[in-house]
Write a structure and sequence with these properties.
The complex is a heterodimer. Chain A is α/β, with parallel strands linked by helices. Helices cover 33% and strands 15% of the residues of chain A. Chain B has one domain: Vaccinia Virus protein VP39 (Rossmann fold), CATH 3.40.50.150. Classes of the chains: A alpha/beta, B alpha/beta.
């Protein structure tokens, strides 16, 4: 199908005219939070589940994406009869601050009728994203979220929710996440950012007016990042050394063009990504991830971030995830143990790498569903019996 | 020590080992409990639902962890040797280690951690002093094999076998008070040898101890 250009879609959103003061000290005069909800909020407003999306995700967690036409991005987890059951829970998913699906970010105008923020958009943090989500939750009149769930950068937001608003989170599920972004992860992000900035169409970030977007740079950034989301086993299983269909033999050596199947796969990932994502937004959000270090917000002591917490935690990691490896989830779970918190942790065997959290992983569904079920009993949620 | 009936056969709820039932009965309602090597979570499930405890588990096997979490019970995927040091002092009222002590890397260090993070420790282990094992070693000169000690020496996970007498000696050295102890048979029933530890050491297939930090 033809891909519509960004812009014409009217995303459902809440506007906060009091704006938002950021960690960097700047004040956003106007805050827009684009969001989607699924299911019904009960009378006690106690069955709300917030889903936090990852770096390149968005609020369309449980429906066909209006821009790409693709299915719901967490179709294994969120929906009727699934672990995050939209027939039981009121599911909320908001586009992060700095995103490009309708929430305030580089792509959005500073004020109605004005130019987009572009690279003038102030630096944001994971905590800023969470504060923006908190305003949305407050606007629904929800005082306590039953659960906050997210993978990867979504998991960072979950941690920040639990640390910043402990009384407002009954259960927290950070999946394939870490309490800080490692040097290796920052390094990969920097390659992506340099690819974008080096694209002549980037024009110092002022490309909205030129009509030419830094698509090449953004595509390369996506290709690099995509490799980090997979595992060697997954790539070998899927592609091995297979050549593209019409290539006769490996002797047809070519410097350029897609000779191996894995090359064309990555190029496809890059080219579809640029249709739905904004380069400045990618810069802003990767920066927010790089700056994330929850312990440093609490004098270098991670348990202090959760001292006295009554939130119930479930940490999930995947054995082949080398971007957010198991040891990071285990370290967080242990920090919670030091804070004497109620915490579960499981490493799920999978060869699918970091992306496993988005894919068909029966163990993830089973663990998450059971955990939420147990929490629902403890939270006294009605109509959530087994 | 408590005075109770000898040799009584107890019947248990479905899916609950007899020795776990005995352990559950040793734990005061409403306690904070950590079950190390919690398996499918039968004990922490019982403690949570029947005894109103705040019960948590540690388990090394991924499938068991997934199974237990999916029952709504809190479990850490980890092991006794490395994970206990991450809990604060006196975080629990009881820490349970059932049929696992003989399989850990450092039993003494694990016991120390247990009695650091908890007021009391409940420990069960297969008794290597049982007469069948002694007899086999004496007559055959080979490492004994029984239903309790079911694997050959070169592949058994039970790398630190001990006897009931050995365990009493360790408690003495470490300064732990033995509040209760009993010998139990293979099925987890109490054995009638509890008055005399040397007899228990000869006839008890397993041992169950409740220790307290002095």
């Amino acid at each position: 199908m033809d891909q519509p250009e960004q812009g014409p879609i009217a995303h459902q959103s809440a506007v906060f005219t009091d704006g938002l003061t950021l960690d960097c000290g700047q004040h956003l005069p106007l805050l827009t939070v684009a969001y989607r909800t699924y299911g019904a909020l009960n009378a006690a407003r106690s069955n709300a589940v917030l889903i936090c999306h990852a770096l390149t995700g968005d609020q369309y967690v449980g429906e066909i994406h209006p821009l790409t036409g693709k299915g719901p991005w967490w179709d294994q987890v969120v929906g009727p009869g699934l672990p995050v059951d939209t027939e039981r829970y009121f599911v909320i998913c908001a586009n992060v601050l700095g995103g490009c699906m309708g929430s305030t970010g580089p792509l959005e105008p500073r004020a109605p009728g004005e130019e987009p923020w572009g690279t003038d958009f102030p630096p944001i943090t994971i905590r800023d994203m969470v504060r923006a989500q908190k305003k949305l939750i407050d606007s629904f009149g929800i005082s306590r979220l039953f659960a906050v769930i997210g993978g990867s950068m979504g998991g960072m937001q979950v941690l920040e929710w639990a640390a910043t608003y402990p009384e407002h989170v009954f259960a927290a599920v950070p999946i394939a996440a870490a309490s800080y972004h490692s040097a290796q992860n920052i390094a990969f992000h920097e390659v992506g950012r340099q690819a974008i900035i080096s694209d002549p169409h980037f024009a110092g970030g002022k490309y909205y007016a030129t009509g030419e977007k830094p698509e090449r740079g953004l595509a390369v950034a996506r290709m690099v990042a995509h490799i980090t989301y997979l595992s060697e086993e997954a790539l070998s299983r899927k592609f091995g050394r297979k050549l593209q269909g019409s290539q006769p033999t490996p002797h047809a050596l070519a410097l350029f063009g897609d000779m191996f199947e894995v090359e064309s796969y990555l190029q496809h990932q890059g080219s579809t990504f640029v249709r739905r994502f904004d380069a400045n937004s990618y810069l802003a959000i990767t920066r927010a991830m790089d700056n994330f270090d929850l312990a440093s917000e609490h004098d270098g002591d991670l348990p202090r971030a959760f001292r006295g917490t009554r939130t119930r935690f479930l940490f999930v990691s995947f054995s082949s995830d080398w971007l957010f490896p198991t040891r990071e989830s285990r370290a967080m779970a242990r920090a919670l143990n030091r804070a004497a918190a109620n915490v579960s942790f499981v490493e799920i065997e999978s060869d699918k790498g970091h992306d496993a959290f988005l894919l068909d992983e029966p163990d993830l569904r089973r663990v998450l569903g059971g955990f939420l079920q147990g929490c629902a009993l403890h939270a006294g949620l009605e109509n959530v019996a087994a | 020590m408590t005075g109770e009936q000898h040799g009584e056969v107890r019947y248990v709820a479905k899916n609950m080992r007899l020795d776990l039932r005995l352990i559950a009965e040793m734990i005061a309602p409403g306690s904070r409990v950590l079950d190390i090597g919690c398996g499918d979570g039968a004990l922490i499930d019982e403690l949570t639902k029947v005894r109103g405890c705040d019960a948590r588990g540690i388990e090394i096997d991924m499938a068991e962890v997934a199974q237990t979490i999916s029952r709504g019970l809190p479990v850490m995927h980890g092991d006794a040797d490395t994970d206990l040091s991450h809990y604060p002092d006196r975080a629990f009222d009881y820490v349970v280690l059932s049929r696992t002590l003989q399989a850990v890397e450092q039993p003494r260090a694990v016991l120390r951690q247990m009695l650091r993070i908890s007021e009391r420790a409940i420990v069960s282990f297969p008794n290597f002093g049982h007469w069948q094992l002694r007899w086999q070693l004496l007559t055959k000169g080979r490492m004994p094999m029984t239903s309790v000690w079911g694997k050959a020496w070169y592949e058994t996970p039970n790398i630190h076998p001990c006897t009931i007498s050995d365990f009493f000696a360790l408690c003495e050295v470490e300064g732990y008070e033995v509040e209760r102890w009993m010998a139990i048979d293979d099925a987890g029933r109490k054995s009638p040898w509890r008055r005399f530890s040397t007899l228990a050491n000869l006839f008890g297939e397993q041992a169950l101890f409740q220790l307290r930090r002095v």
